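Fold sample X.
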Amino acid sequence: MGGRTSTALADGSKEASYCSVELAAWVGQGIGPCPVRYIKLGSGGGWEASALDGGRIEWGNSGDPADLAAAGDWTAVRQHYIWQGKRPAVATSYANEMRDFFTLGADTLWITFARDRLWWAFAQLEVVHRGMESATQGSFYRRTVGPWRCTDIAGKPLVMHDLSTALTKVASYPRTMCMVEAEAYLFRLLNAEPDPALLAARDALCLLEKSLVPLIQQLHWADFETLVDLLFFRAGWARVSRLGGTLKDHDLILEQPITGQRVSVQVKSRASQAVLNGYVQRFNENQFADQLYFICHSGELTAPPSALPLHIWTGPRLAREVIAAGLGNWLLERAA
């Protein structure tokens, strides 16, 4: 993304040489590599509305020396902060932050976290000085090139709790602006590019799931019932009936200890669609539990129209649950 230029306007200010339409075409080709900065939008997010809704990058307060920054005298900017009583190291940090805001080019990617989303934008070069900051606006701002975005280039929302802590940890940065260590991850994220290592792991997991299905199908019916019981136990369900039991239409009755929700579990090694339909009909007439789980390791089954609330687990779903519950070794021992 480097190499973008700027053009001078009649009033001497500058703006990015590309408009939002050009940006959209450029984004379609991919984002980065380019400089990246995280910026915090005010104390407690107070500047978020002005920035995100107004298309601005907000920064600074009335104590920041606008005249020295405009002159590009960064040594004097640092000395200004020292005269304000800042320690030399802190004064250097303040001066560097101001220099970045004033001098980073239009090819710099700005990111922030707000409203449970990751937001990103590029900004025009002109820095506008308002003067006194407020609870809702900074003392300075740069207009964004196009709106702030909170989706990747494919349109997927960038929900904060779905992202790696390697990136989201910058949200806890105590000052206003910082570099981003996880740049490679950020660019993959914005460009909707999967991590090669993640793809390899997913392929391996898929292969493992497929390999477990025939092992599940080889289990003796008693071991299969025990496996199902263990799956629900590790998911936090408590059995309130005997395993297998004597109930006509239930192999297991389970209860969620916190919510009190009760489910009926029917376990079959093999079953036809007619058998499933019969259990569903009796469940709907009985309503002994809140939900019905019909678990069968072999067979092609579909939910009847009146099947709610019904969950059907066959071989592939059972294999996924075995992995999730950490019962792979148990299965290997029983199938040996």
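Fold sample Y, listed below.
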Amino acid sequence: MTKLWVVLAMVLFGLLAQAGTRDVKKTYELINKGEALSSRDADSLEERIAKKPEDAEARIQLLSYYSRIPARGALSAIKAARLKHILWLVAHDPEEGLGLFQIATGIYLVNRVGDDLADAEACRLVSDLWLEQMKKNAGNVKLRREAVEAILFCSPELAEQAMAEMKDEAGLGRLYAYAVLGVTGRSYANRDPLLSDAALRASPFAKKAQGILDEATDQQLLMAAVGTLLRTGAILWADGKLDWDYTSMGHSLLAKIQEEAVDPFVLLTLPRTLPARGDRPPAMLRIGGNVQSRQLVQKVSPVYPTGARDAGIEGTVRMTALIGLDGKVLHLRPESGHAKLVPASVDAVRQWMYKPTLLNGKPCYVLTQVDVNYVLSPR
């Protein structure tokens, strides 16, 4: 598991460092240190926290430690210690979560069912505290979103209510797709779907969710639902944790999405057929432009448009680029720049080639930013 954190830290650091005020690289390092703790180390950190409750570094390490190997001690004691730190986090740092909310970790999450650390009563306590925080900070949208993410599987009805109040149609689409798939929770290591439970797929909430999706017309909700259904379903199927063919429902939802509402970046990377067992779908990483530019192996310079040159037009054309598994540019979306400079920029960047990006040895899609600069030569 340590290697996974190292890879994620190296690949995602350039983007994630902009997402919050804490040092993302340091957070990953603390998670890795937590994995390697001995029981004696953990006891020492608990003593440290008893003297200094705001010691975020100690709490991150302990959450990592308690979330990894339940066999290290009595399961009930580990669950209690873990819950204590999660409740402290929600009570004292609900916006940043000690810096954990901005990275791909689930060590601060509680699942209701589905794994050794799952705990229905802990779920209730955590959900109640998040509800209290949402009420105390009613105008804080960021906190509200973090709360919803934390209780998504503990209290789907409460999450649904909060999303509806925020008019978060995309969030509702994800929630309903998870319910239809019967997802029990997320991995504490990386927030991957934990498993699918047939009883949850047959629950009243899941039946309600399926009915809503069958009748849905909101394009944001549909896009989020189909993306979650097809990608999460593919992961569960590949892992041997799902025996229900979700793809027919996925295609039914796709048929309702209007062409102008389609996000091509999501659409081009969706796994639309059942994968082979053991063959997870490729991931899509968001990587900063400066970091991704180091992977360029072929760069074609744009031709300066004559009309723009004659008009004295200079500047930067900024584009979002989707890079395929083989390093080719699959899609470009201009974000800013003079209209006379955009077509030449798109034509040039379409020909660029990157070294394929690997995650755990497997090629993945990359969403990145590309800037093309135009500067007139002095006459």
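Sample Y note: The beta strands are 284-286, 296-298, 315-323, 329-336, 353-354, 357-359, 362-374.
Also: Residues 219-238 form the longest helix (20 residues).
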